[in-house]
Amino acid sequence: MSDIEITVIGMTCQHCVNAVTEEVSALDGVSAVEVDLDSGRVVISSHSPLTEMQLQTAIAEAGYEIQSPA
Ligand SMILES: [Cu+2]
User: Domain of 33: which CATH number?
Assistant: First the structure.
């Protein structure tokens, strides 16, 4: 179990938060996703390690961008 923290650019409302949460939650091993709308900070709890590529793809699927890589 590990926690990964990333910063996502472009989220403006609860809908954005939901979209990011949904995409990241769908990744293998992810047990929890916590999104702070104001700071753009996303904390991901995962049972298996996630690659930067996986995260980038998930965030892009949701329509946003990672500012600082994990
Ligand atoms: Cu939104």
Answer: 3.30.70.100
